[in-house]
Amino acid sequence: MTVARGSETLDRVDDPDEEPRLRIGEVARVTGLTARTLRYWEEIGLLKPFAHRGSGERLYSVAERERVTHIRELQDLLGLTLAEIQDVLASEDTLERARRAARADAPTPKRLRLLADALEANGRLVDRINERLARIKEFRDECVERGDRMRARQLELEADQRRASRR
Amino acid sequence: MTVARGSETLDRVDDPDEEPRLRIGEVARVTGLTARTLRYWEEIGLLKPFAHRGSGERLYSVAERERVTHIRELQDLLGLTLAEIQDVLASEDTLERARRAARADAPTPKRLRLLADALEANGRLVDRINERLARIKEFRDECVERGDRMRARQLELEADQRRASRR
DNA sequence: ATCCAAGTTTCCGTTCACGTCAACGGTAAT
DNA sequence: ATTACCGTTGACGTGAACGGAAACTTGGAT
After folding, report:
1. Which of A28, A50, B36, B52 is 20 to 30 Å from the Cα of A113, by its Cα?
2. Any residues with CB less than 8 A from the CB of B116 and at least 6 apart, and which?
3. Which of A162, A146, A144 is nearest to B112 (CA)?
4. Which class in CATH covers the domain with range B1-76?
5. What residues does A5 pair with on adjacent strands?
6. Hey, how many other C-beta atoms are within 10 angstroms of the C-beta on B22?
7. Which of A73, A68, A94 is nearest to B135 (CA)?
8. CA B72 to CA B85: how far, in whole Å?
């Protein structure tokens, strides 16, 4: 499926509306990554650009840009490896399929099934996040407690000091 | 300073009490790491074993075993690199020095200064943790919200289905 | 005294997640 | 058409964080 649009040729055009097509440098700038990273992610099958131009130039849509930030969060905040992220996203992509099914007027039962799958994937992710949150809170509380003990000791010492200076 | 104790020879003995001396395999097992990792951490100056026997065998004390789990938490929960962890621990070690100063009957002002330093380092760490917690919570809320939207859609579809089956 | 599991050092290898450089091609505006 | 930039595909390099094998020593139980 090759469609001419202006003077440029796209290998794939699913929607004819006015969605902006981003070049790789654009996406890199707004997400704070490098083009290399985006190509690497594509290399390992983590992020497929919306389309390749005949010249090979990648074109991204807003959906991919959002996916990029999502991936970053999974990476930085949850400490997942790119492989684990692939798993997570594979589950999540069910949602995308559901949306496409909606566009395609798919039968309601099928759409419901897809939705249920997406919901389950989402639930698992939220569980993971909550688990991590709990562990970090625990760790923080330990640190805070240590701080409290140190402050108590500090007061003690200061009292000693005052007593000593009084005589 | 070499002291004979039973038939074994220690390069360094600071406390004569009954603190158990752990061998590397022991520490590895209880912390879930490998001996290789512990040696690596020593190599980069992250974790000094309490003592080396004449043969080169490492002996750890409880303090080091705790330090190991602490490092793991900084690594896994906060996603710090070993270099960053070194920084954090360098600050935190002030506390250890403070304790030693206490043992050595150091002057109170000095002990207070050490305590203040340790407190500040601790405060910075807690801040970091809180910041991270906030970001993760934000991320979780986004996910939860998405889930809510999906559930709403689900109800809608189910209603459609019921309407359709009624006629 | 002997034996072996567990320790040691040294050195080289690996995986992950990119960075970097070269050589080249296409795009956009003048 | 020229110029100034993107962008492309390799290929190789890198830093962090270890893994693994070889060759040797040691501690502790039998």
Report:
1. A50
2. A154
3. A162
4. mainly alpha
5. A8
6. 20
7. A73
8. 10
Domain spanning A1-77 has what CATH number? Answer: 1.10.1660.10
Decide if A143 and B125 are in contact by the 8 Å CB cutoff. yes
- Could you read off the pLDDT of A105-115 as tens digits, one per residue? 888 888 899 99
Please check the confidence at residue B16 and state whether its pLDDT lies above 80.
Answer: no
Annotated domain spans of chain B: 1-76, 80-167
Name the residue among A119, A147, A157 with its Cβ closest to that of B151: A119
Q: Which of B15-19, B26-30, B57-61, B119-123 has the lowest mean pLDDT?
A: B15-19
The C-alpha atoms of residue A42 and residue A84 are separated, in whole angstroms, by: 15
Distance CA B78, CA B87 (A): 14
How near does any CA of chain B get to the CA of A66, in Å? 13
Q: Do strands A8-10 and B51-52 pair parallel, antiparallel, or not at all (unpaired)?
A: unpaired
Q: How far is CA B90 from CA A57, A76, B97, in A?
A: 48, 24, 11
- For the beta carbon of residue A81, count every other beta carbon within 10 angstroms: 10
What is the CA B56 to C1' D25 distance in angstroms? 10
Q: How many whole angstroms separate alpha carbon B149 and alpha carbon A71?
A: 21
